[in-house]
Amino acid sequence: MRIVNSMSIFRIIGIVLLVLGIAMIATGSFQFREKKKILDTNTVDISTTENKIVTWPRIAGVAVAVGGIVLIVIGRNSRSKTAV
After folding, report:
1. How far apart are CA 29 and CA 53, in angstroms?
2. What does the buried/exposed string (b/e) look like for 35-57 if buried means 16 or more CB atoms within 10 Å of the residue's CB?
3. CB-neighbour burial class of residue 14 (10 A; exposed 0-12, middle 13-18, buried 19+)
């Protein structure tokens, strides 16, 4: 619990969101493979692998990063008010 006491939960979430937002801006999308069964019998199993691409607009990454910055600032302000 010392980590939570020294860093506000807002700052921790803000840092995570900032890193996630920067990653979203840098990549723009990610891929994964999905295996689907077409035919499943006792003797024959036929399946296929599909490549899926998930994309998001760059403005979403900017919004997530800005939200992270806001939470970091809120965490810093609440920490300075409690220290006084």
Report:
1. 7
2. eeeeeeeeeeeeeeeeeeeeeee
3. buried
Whether the CA torsion 63, 68, 71, 77 is positive or negative: it is: negative
Q: Note whether 75 and 10 are within 8 A (CB).
A: yes
Radius of gyration of the chain (CA): 21
When pLDDT is averaged across residues 31-35 and rounded to a whole number, the result is 93
Q: How far apart are the C-alpha atoms of 70 and 10, rounded to whole Å?
A: 9
Give residue limits of the domains in the chain.
2-83
pLDDT at 82 over 60: no
How wide is the angle at C-alpha 34 spanned by C-alphas 33 and 37, nearest 5°?
145
User: Tokens 């995570």 sit at which residue?
Assistant: 16
